[in-house]
Prior knowledge:
Blueprint: H1 44-72, H2 75-101, H3 117-131, H4 165-173
Helix pairs in contact: 2-3
Amino acid sequence: MSENPTTTPATDPAANGGATGGDPSTTPPAPSDKAPKWEGDFDPDKAARLVANLRDELAAVKGRLKTREDAEKSDLQKAQERAEKLAADLKAERQKDAAKSHKLPASLAKHLTGETAEEIAASAKALADELGLAQTEAEPLPGRPKPRLRPGHAAPGDTSGAFDPAAVIKAARGY
């Protein structure tokens, strides 16, 4: 069988998504999640300017959105947000004060728990006890003598007399 060049080949509707022939109205649209192709050769400077402009435009749109959201908030919502911020600031200050009063490093203040000043102070005390920072220096170690030095005076129990340089010289020379 020979092919007839005057007839057009039939297209399979399943092969091209259900469309028959080359009718442009029935072709599926291009996916919108893909970026359009770059026109001409790629220019890095042009791309950098485009990205910078888009970032500036995005920042401006976010600013306008925030302004609109703030304008739409009621006075009650604004007061609630301010109260929440002030409560968080107060808790942070209480944590810093408790850490300082229990001689904890400032970096550990954020790890103290509790809502009231008493709870935070109890947390700071427990942490200081755990780290061994609550040990007091009131009593010296047992068995060590405690020196009682006073400038210009001999130590208690020192029975030696006044300083005699001649006696020191004789002792050094062996006389």
